[in-house]
Design a protein that fits this description.
The complex is a heterodimer of chains A (281) and B (157).
Chain A: H1 3-8, E1 14-25, E2 28-35, E3 50-55, E4 59-68, E5 74-79, H2 83-89, E6 96-103, E7 116-122, H3 126-138, E8 146-152, H4 161-169, E9 173-179, E10 182-183, E11 189-190, E12 207-212, H5 215-228, E13 235-238, E14 254-255, E15 258-259, H6 260-263, E16 266-268, H7 269-272
Parallel strand pairs in A: 7-8, 7-12, 8-9, 9-11, 12-13
Antiparallel strand pairs in A: 1-2, 1-6, 2-5, 3-4, 3-6, 4-5, 13-16, 14-15
Chain B: E1 2-6, H1 9-13, H2 23-30, E2 33-38, E3 43-45, E4 53-59, E5 62-68, E6 72-79, E7 84-85, E8 99-102, E9 106-112, H3 113-122, H4 124-149
Antiparallel strand pairs in B: 1-2, 2-9, 3-8, 4-7, 4-9, 5-6, 5-8
Helix pairs in contact in B: 3-4
Classes of the chains: A alpha/beta (281), B alpha+beta (157).
C-alpha cells in the first residue's frame, strides 16, 4: 500500500455484502454483513466500537457494532430515522454496503473482572451493549452477578427479544425489562428504566455499570446508580454526537474538549458528567 | 382478597418504603395494618372510589392504570416489592384517581387510612415520618413520569 493509500484508507469504505437482515421492530433492523468477494475483512471490532456505514449513493452514518458473527460477519442494528438510515433499513440480503472502521474507544471490559456488572440499556442503546453481554456470558465468572436492565418505549419496540429470552436463561444473569407505556397485554414493568436500579441485588461498591441510551436517560441512570452506591468511575457511558469523518479530523463530533469519534464513544462517567450538564453542548 | 392477618412492627420496617421507621412509629402503624393477598387481575383500588386504604407491596406487581374508552386499561406505571400504592387518602377529596390492579399474585400490607390519620394526629413523629416517605414516593413517581413524557426513545424527528 502506498503512503497515499495508507493515509486515505480510513476514509475509504470497504465493500461488504449484506447476508442477513433481521427486523427488530417496525423501524429497526439488524444487518449482518461480510466482506465482498476478493475484499479483505476489516479489523475485528471490539465491543463498543462503531463503523461508518454507507448506503451507496445516499450517504454515510456511524453505527455501533451490535455483534460479530462467523466468517468475519459484522452485525449492525440500524434505526430508520433519516435518509441514510432509511436507505440502510431498506437493504436486503445480497445488497452491497460500505463499511469503514472500526473506530473509537470501546467498553473497558477488563474493569469488570471480579466485579458484579450492571448493563443498563434504553431503546436502541441495547445494540452496542449486546457484545458486552455476549462477552460476559462467554467469560462467565462464578459468584458474579450480571444484571441487565432494559427500557423501551413500548413492548412492541423492544429489540433483540430472542436474545433477551436467551439471556434470561443464562446462568448468573438476570434480565429486567420496563416500558414507558403499555396496555394489559404487557404483564411486565411499566416506568422509566431508572426505576429498575433500586431493585438491584448487587454489591454496589464492587459493581461496574455499562450504560447506553438517549443522553437524558444516561444522565438520570448514572445518578440513580451512584445513589444506589456505585462509584462514579465504575460507570461507563456510550456517548453519541454528529460523527462524520470518524478519525478526529472534521470536528463535527466535538463535545467540549473531546472528540467523540476518537476519545469515545465510550467514556467513564466522570469524563462526561460535567459536560452533560452544559446547555450549550 | 385474603385479609385480616395482623402485622408485626418488624415486618413494616423490612419493606423499602418503611425501612428505618422508628420502633414506636412502627408499632403504632402496625396496629392499623393487615396483610392482603390478591390474585392476578384483582383490584386494590378503583378510580373514583373512596381512598380508605393504602398499600405497601411485599411481593408481586401492581399496575396503576386508567380505563380509556375504546382503548381499554392503559398502564401509567407499575409498583413492585417494597413500594407504596396510594396517597389519595392523604388529600381531600380522598378518592382514588387511578385503578390499582395486580398483574400477578401480589401480597401487600394494607393500611386503614382513617386509623393512620388519627394515629398521625396523635403522634407528630409518625406524621413527620409518614408524610416525608409519601412525599419521596410521589417525587420519584413524578420524576419518572416526567421522563416518560419526554418520549426519549421516540423518533428524534
Amino acid at each position: 500500500m502506498s503512503l497515499r493509500d495508507s493515509i486515505a484508507a480510513p476514509m475509504v469504505p470497504v465493500r461488504y455484502r449484506v447476508v442477513e437482515r433481521r427486523r427488530e421492530t417496525h423501524d429497526t433492523v439488524t444487518l449482518t454483513s461480510v466482506p465482498d468477494a476478493g475484499v479483505d475483512a476489516l479489523e475485528e471490532p471490539r465491543p463498543g466500537q462503531f463503523h461508518m456505514l454507507s448506503a451507496f449513493g445516499v450517504g454515510e452514518v456511524p453505527i455501533s457494532v451490535s455483534g460479530v458473527g462467523p466468517q468475519g460477519g459484522i452485525e449492525h442494528t440500524v434505526r430508520a430515522v433519516g435518509a441514510n438510515t432509511e436507505a440502510l433499513d431498506a437493504l436486503s440480503a445480497g445488497d452491497a454496503v460500505g463499511v469503514r472502521g472500526p473506530f473509537g474507544r470501546g467498553w473497558h471490559l477488563d474493569g469488570a473482572a471480579g466485579m458484579d456488572v450492571v448493563v443498563l440499556a434504553g431503546g436502541i442503546g441495547l445494540a452496542p451493549l449486546r457484545p458486552v453481554i455476549q462477552h460476559l456470558i462467554e467469560q462467565r465468572e462464578e459468584n458474579r452477578s450480571v444484571r441487565l436492565l432494559v427500557g423501551a418505549r413500548r413492548s412492541e419496540e423492544l429489540s433483540f427479544t430472542s436474545d433477551l429470552a436467551a439471556w434470561s436463561e443464562a446462568p448468573g444473569i438476570e434480565v429486567a425489562v420496563t416500558v414507558d407505556s403499555a396496555t394489559r397485554e404487557w404483564s411486565g414493568r411499566v416506568g422509566v428504566v431508572t426505576n429498575l436500579v433500586e431493585d438491584l441485588d448487587v454489591d454496589a461498591p464492587r459493581t461496574v455499570a455499562f450504560v447506553c441510551g438517549p443522553e437524558v436517560m444516561m444522565r438520570f441512570s448514572a445518578r440513580a446508580l451512584i445513589e444506589f452506591g456505585l462509584l462514579p468511575e465504575k460507570i461507563q457511558l456510550s456517548a453519541e454526537r454528529n460523527m462524520k469523518c470518524a478519525i478526529a479530523h472534521c470536528g463535527h463530533c466535538q463535545y467540549g474538549p473531546l472528540l467523540i469519534c476518537r476519545d469515545g464513544p465510550v467514556f467513564d462517567y466522570p469524563e462526561l458528567c460535567e459536560l452533560m450538564e452544559v446547555r450549550e453542548l | 382478597m385474603n385479609q385480616n392477618i395482623r402485622i408485626e412492627p418488624s415486618r413494616l420496617a423490612a419493606t423499602r418504603f418503611l425501612s428505618g421507621l422508628p420502633e414506636q412509629s412502627a408499632t403504632t402503624l402496625s396496629a392499623c395494618a393487615r396483610e392482603i393477598t390478591i390474585g392476578r387481575g384483582g383490584f386494590l383500588a378503583h378510580e373514583s372510589r373512596t381512598a380508605d386504604e393504602f398499600f405497601v407491596i411485599e411481593r408481586g406487581l401492581v399496575a396503576i392504570e386508567l380505563l380509556a374508552p375504546g382503548r381499554g386499561p392503559l398502564i401509567v406505571a407499575t409498583v413492585g416489592k417494597g413500594q407504596l400504592v396510594g396517597w389519595s387518602w392523604l388529600f381531600s377529596p380522598r378518592i382514588w384517581h387511578f385503578d390499582a390492579v395486580a398483574l400477578e399474585l401480589t401480597q401487600a400490607i394494607a393500611f386503614d387510612a382513617e386509623a393512620v390519620r388519627q394515629a398521625c394526629d396523635a403522634d407528630p413523629e409518625l406524621r413527620h415520618e409518614l408524610t416525608g416517605r409519601v412525599a419521596r414516593a410521589m417525587s420519584l413517581r413524578l420524576e419518572g413520569i416526567q421522563i416518560q413524557l419526554l418520549d426519549l426513545y421516540g423518533s428524534p424527528s
